[in-house]
Amino acid sequence: MFKLNLSRRRKFNILLLGVAILISGFFIFFTNYLVGELSKEEIEKVKKVADAYEALNDPNTTDVTPAFQIIQNTTIPIIVTDKNELVSQTKNLDPVKSKNPAYVKELIKKWKYFNKPIKVNEYQFIYFEEKPAVTLLRFYPYLQFLLLAVFLAIAYIAITSSRRFEQNRVWVGMAKETAHQIGTPLSSLMAWVDYLKAGEGYASPEVIDELEKDVNRLNIIAERFSKIGSTPELVEYNLYNLLEESIDYLRARIPKKVNITIHGDGDYKNVNIKINKNLFSWVIENLTKNAADAMEGDGDIRFIIRPHKDFVLIDIKDSGKGILRSNYKNVFEPGFTTKKRCWGLGLSLTKRIIENYHKGEIFVKDSEQGKGTTFRIRLGRA
Question: How many whole angstroms separate alpha carbon 365 and alpha carbon 286?
Fold first, then answer.
């Protein structure tokens, strides 16, 4: 299911990007074509001026009147230079600014960026300014591409936010309904436990004790689901004791060959954090069960507490199959799973609990194929 959704999302993103590139490419091509046509017209006019200058310089020209008229009537700003760009004449420039050599040199530099100078002869060249409209047209497609990119980015963010909002509504609705559905059989189970404890039926004390634990656990699960979508109350707890409590419950419910230990740096047993106990223990259970599944029921799971001044890091390291680097972020996506019979919601819920409700962070710290994976949780200290 995850791969299908991810594939569709990637195809949609690629299609969106492809359409944007095609549209932008068309506008760039078409605009460049228009610029080329308009530039040709300008260049032809400047060539006539160049021919006029050449006629004036030609001692064999008998009638220079037409050449003078062409130069006189041109409205295109031009600068006549030698091959070393030493200015000999200017026309249609600002009469005050054109007296400044630095200003004229700057114009030459700018003009030749867009158009090569027109050659009059071996010793004279004409630099000219193209129409402002043509210059605007040169940059217009790139501006259009930028605006299109901004529009697509805003649209993508809006669609993604809308989809995430709908997903959150589904999550909350599903969680509330699950809590409601668990409530009815849970009440019945609690009644049966009371019945057995009263001696009305035959069961050993150990069975009753374990049954009561599971009923209490179901009650906690129902409470967990009921809190999804609400703002949970955060209370200060000792982190080491909380991990011990959660792990102690899990030891009897995962394969015997899975060895779970808690280690740490410095005074790691005296670190306090503000959390919602039920939700945080859910995180520990999800990560522990995932690790046990990754090791196929045989291996080591190490919880390592690393205290810092304002925060604490909790590393959960297993000796399982490992995760591909390309899936480091995907593992937290709803629906991601490598198991045949699994919804792929555990790590997604874990991420929501840590980041949305506890303002912390969880990520894959490192992983190696065939050697194991380390998840890291970062939480503020109380």
Answer: 17
